[in-house]
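Record type: monomer structure entry
Structure origin: computed from sequence
Chain ID: A
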Amino acid sequence: MTRTVLIVDDSKLARMVVSGILGRYQPDWRPLEAGSAEKALQLIGETPVDIALIDFNMPEMDGLDLAARIRELRPEMPMAIVSANAQQSIIARARELNVAFVEKPLTEEALKPFLSGAALRLRQSAAS
């Protein structure tokens, strides 16, 4: 089943890396890129998005604040914060928001567990 994955990162290179991993792991899933939190919120309002991968360090709004805003709009959407900044306070806040934490540097092995879990959650919610 085709899924749309929103990739939010202010770095074009980082978005390309995630899109590449996604293409190798789930070639039928569609990456949708946003270079800012504002663009991500716009896309969520306009496009059916199934999963979100969000960079923590972004200029106008950090990834956790963006995840909290998305959670208000899409309470069941699987999301992950992606960051090299693995401080316990960031990971704890992600857990409070029911958002996974995936540490950079991002690899296929690091991303696979989140994507597999997200796919399972989406299948279960569709069956309900």
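Annotation 1: The mean pLDDT is 94.
Annotation 2: The longest strand covers residues 4-8.
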